[in-house]
Design a protein that fits this description.
The structure holds 2 protein chains of 2 kinds. Chain A is 22% helix and 21% strand. Chain A has helices at 2-9, 48-61, 84-93, and strands at 28-31, 35-38, 68-71, 95-96, 113-117, 125-130, 136-140. Chain B is built from 10 helices and no strands. The longest helix of chain B has 29 residues, at 32-60. The chains are: A alpha/beta, B mainly alpha. The complex binds zinc ion. Zinc ion (ZN) binds next to loops of chain A.
Chain lengths: 143, 237
């Protein structure tokens, strides 16, 4: 039961970065027999409602219409919860996964990169540039 | 000792009003990167406000949710500090306000994250990670402007001057935040030193926001923010 729900959820895309799922991002914290527990990324993430609606629709469509969705704030979401698979998908999509050390260009793998802006197109991303290939790219910020 | 409701309302109103103020910059900032930054900071604050006001509504137990508290209260019922309702002015004035507020908010959220009330501390723990970014961003701009051209320096000094009389209210002993003052003073002095700016001279403080005594600026802000719910009460989409 829990396994099949997790399987359903692993196919619910993040509305802003649809290449990763809500499970990849660590938004799904727990699946119980009667409820799915989720946590928002940033307090003001505008995708929060869309994420909940996406999960609801997927649960309903897969015969889990009686599962509730609970939102918890604690412990606060961190990018450490993004799965290895999620990190690989971000990289392949052209978004550098969060890194506590070097920022690697997702296009040419150079580490010769610089920050253009700490705030990017969504709360979770910063804008960087690669000095080797010259391309700008998004970095998923450590959080 | 303030009740949990009072506490949550104050924190929510601070974040809501400053978030609304920052949203006024969308599409008007001097550079695209600044536009993104101010919008993102505003978004974080409005998200925090949603959490704090939701909690306040639950504590109150009269069926008011975050939207009801944000859009269906009049100016006298708002409990935000006067600093956050001050107009944006020029970019330096906006940065001055953000610099003073975010450094205070980061210290406060750190304290709240460790507080005994679990509902409040959960919001604080989430907010502190976001606010640390805001404080760093504003502090970097204070240095850039203060240590920049004659023009940028003059504007930064004027911006800090215009906001300085609203600082004391942040540390009102009635709110229990007085203990944060030494750490805040040290942070502010460090950044101003790096910007080769002087700490503004003490001046007569203007207070009252926590008791609902606001400047006329807040009424104008609410007029715009609450327009839809006032014209079409209860409307949804
Ligand atoms: Zn590259």
């Amino acid at each position: 039961m829990v396994e099949s729900v997790l399987d359903v959820l692993s196919r619910v895309p993040d509305p802003e970065i649809p290449v990763v799922s809500v499970v990849d991002l660590g938004i799904v914290r727990e699946v119980r027999d009667d409820a799915v527990v989720i946590t928002p990324t940033y307090s003001g993430c505008p995708a929060t409602l869309a994420i909940e609606a996406g999960i609801r629709a997927a649960l309903d469509a897969s015969g889990h219409g009686d599962m509730k969705i609970e939102t918890v704030l604690s412990p606060p979401w961190t990018t450490d919860w993004i799965s290895e698979e999620g990190r690989a998908k971000l990289h392949a999509y052209g978004i550098a996964p969060p890194s506590r050390s070097q920022v690697v260009c997702p296009r040419c793998a150079s580490t010769d990169t610089e920050e253009i802006s700490r705030f990017g197109s969504t709360p979770c991303k910063a804008l960087h540039r690669c000095r080797a290939c010259g391309e700008p790219f998004d970095l998923f910020k450590c959080h | 000792m303030a009740s949990l409701f009072d506490h949550a309302i104050r924190l929510g109103d601070d974040a809501l009003i400053l978030g609304q103020r920052l949203s006024e910059w969308a599409g008007h900032a001097p550079m695209l990167e600044i536009d993104l930054a101010l919008s993102n900071i505003g978004l974080d604050l409005i998200g925090q406000a949603t959490h704090f006001l939701k909690l306040a509504g639950e504590e109150e137990g009269k069926g008011r949710d975050a939207d009801a508290l944000a859009f269906r209260r009049d100016v006298l019922d708002f409990r935000n500090c006067l600093l956050v309702e001050q107009p944006n002015g020029d970019f330096a004035q906006t940065i001055a306000r953000q610099f003073l507020f975010s450094n205070w908010q980061e210290l406060l959220m750190t304290e709240i994250a460790a507080a005994p009330a679990p509902a409040l501390s959960a919001i604080g723990a989430k907010a502190v990670k976001e606010v640390a970014y805001h404080a760093r961003y504003a502090s970097e701009w204070v240095v850039r402007l203060g240590d920049g051209t004659e023009e940028s320096r003059a504007r930064m000094v004027a911006g800090l001057d215009s906001m300085w009389r609203f600082v004391d209210e942040l540390f009102d002993p009635a709110d229990g935040a007085a203990s944060l003052r030494p750490a805040w003073d040290a942070r502010i002095a460090d950044t101003l030193h790096a910007a080769s700016l002087d700490v503004p001279k003490p001046r007569r403080a203007v207070t009252g926001g926590r008791r609902g005594h606001h400047s006329e600026h807040l009424g104008h802000l609410l007029t715009e923010m609450q327009f839809l719910q006032r014209a079409y009460p209860g409307v949804t989409w």
